[in-house]
């Protein structure tokens, strides 16, 4: 990747952001040192008037700094999408709206694109954290890596560099911006994790509530379904439905055998009701997978899940 390639750096300012203006100056200095043409775009997901005022002061003196103000808070994924749609650089660089990595490490991410399609920052060494936070972090990545088959160590870091083709072909919605690397790998892109220095100011003490953790778990299973079963829904629903049906059938056979040979009455037997429900539920889940297969078959011509790297002759 030549130094003449334009970089579009997108900073989505959503729930957490630095309002001092120092972060924008750090990013401008770091991007300037790369020797590349660039634009730094702050996408304000909400009013954030304190941050907007400071950015306006900087933008008056540096045309490379742009501000996109969303009408209200739509979420960080929407902010990232808005930034991508309103920039034209061949390289897209997403950066956190707070001090998370050392800004001087941006060059390392950009250089990694010489041999890959996407470079994902991983903070190392990590700052000391509470034991709960360390366990939570390891459990999160273990769950992601085990169900997706893709190994990443710091998906919580928002610093990522990727080629425009990745942004064009990987859809971002909901809260899936955190899992862009997983979705990119699914499309066949070369994704590399790059160790970068953590910012000395990255010291988040906030603890999240149960609702946030539940949302993250649901996001993980959403991504797993997108990565593994988007075009094969029967494998997902069929597996669950078959196990459910099998359990119900076994319990039902046991109940019937007890009635026929052991003279055990069927009245007031919760096992009979439970086994019947499991059999019916298993059939319904299996049927849902078949319905998904019919939908996929009908729209198969419109679906694309591959990326062509090059064509010779």
Please specify the SSE layout and strand pairing.
Elements: E1 7-13, H1 22-33, E2 38-44, H2 49-61, E3 65-69, H3 76-85, E4 91-94, H4 106-112, E5 118-123, H5 131-148, E6 160-163, H6 164-169, H7 180-186, E7 191-196, H8 210-228, H9 233-261, H10 270-298
Parallel strand pairs: 1-2, 1-4, 2-3, 5-7
Antiparallel strand pairs: 4-6, 5-6
Helix pairs in contact: 5-8, 9-10
How would you describe the overall organization of this protein?
The chain is α/β, with parallel strands linked by helices. The protein is 48% helix and 12% strand. The protein has helices spanning 22-33, 49-61, 76-85, 106-112, 131-148, 164-169, 180-186, 210-228, 233-261, 270-298, and strands spanning 7-13, 38-44, 65-69, 91-94, 118-123, 160-163, 191-196. Strands 3-2-1-4-6-5-7 form a seven-stranded mixed beta sheet, sandwiched between helices. β2 (38-44), α2 (49-61) and β3 (65-69) form a beta-alpha-beta unit. α5 packs parallel to α8 (210-228) and α9 (233-261) runs antiparallel to α10. The longest helix has 29 residues, at 233-261. The mean pLDDT is 85.
What are the salient characteristics of this protein?
single chain, 313 residues, alpha/beta, seven-stranded mixed sheet, 7 strands, 48% helix, elongated
Q: How would you describe the shape?
A: elongated
Mean pLDDT: 85
**Strands of the biggest beta sheet: in what spatial order?**
3-2-1-4-6-5-7
What is Rg? Answer: 25 Å
What helical percentage do the residues reach? 40-55%
Give the SSE string.
Answer: EHEHEHEHEHEHHEHHH
Ranges where pLDDT stays below 50 over 5 or more residues in a row are none
Count helical runs: 10
């Amino acid at each position: 990747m030549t130094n003449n390639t334009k970089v579009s750096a997108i900073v989505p300012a959503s729930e957490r952001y630095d309002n001092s203006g120092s972060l924008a100056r750090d990013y401008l200095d770091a991007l300037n040192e790369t020797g590349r043409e660039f634009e730094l775009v702050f996408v304000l997901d909400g009013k954030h008037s304190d941050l907007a005022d400071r950015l306006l002061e900087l933008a008056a003196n540096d045309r490379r700094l742009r501000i996109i103000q969303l009408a209200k808070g739509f979420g960080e994924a929407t902010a990232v999408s808005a930034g991508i749609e309103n920039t034209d650089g061949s390289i897209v660089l997403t950066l956190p709206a707070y001090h998370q990595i050392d800004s001087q490490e941006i060059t390392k991410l950009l250089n990694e694109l010489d041999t890959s399609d996407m470079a994902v920052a991983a903070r190392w060494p990590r700052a000391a954290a509470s034991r709960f936070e360390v366990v939570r972090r390891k459990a999160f990545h273990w769950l992601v890596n085990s169900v997706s088959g893709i190994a990443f160590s710091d998906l919580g870091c928002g610093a990522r560099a990727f080629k425009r083709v990745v942004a064009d072909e990987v859809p971002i919605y909901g809260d899936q911006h955190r899992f862009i690397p997983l979705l990119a790998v699914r499309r066949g892109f070369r994704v590399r994790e790059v160790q970068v220095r953590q910012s000395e100011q990255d010291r988040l003490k906030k603890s999240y509530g149960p609702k946030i953790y539940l949302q993250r778990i649901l996001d993980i299973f959403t991504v797993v379904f997108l990565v593994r079963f988007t075009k094969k829904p029967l494998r997902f629903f069929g597996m669950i439905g078959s196990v459910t049906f099998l359990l119900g059938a076994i319990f039902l056979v046991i109940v019937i055998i007890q009635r026929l040979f052991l003279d055990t009455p069927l009245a007031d037997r919760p096992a009979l009701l439970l086994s019947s429900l499991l059999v019916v539920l298993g059939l319904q889940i299996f049927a849902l997978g078949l319905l998904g297969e019919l939908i996929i078959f009908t729209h198969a011509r419109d679906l694309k899940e591959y990326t062509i790297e090059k064509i010779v002759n």
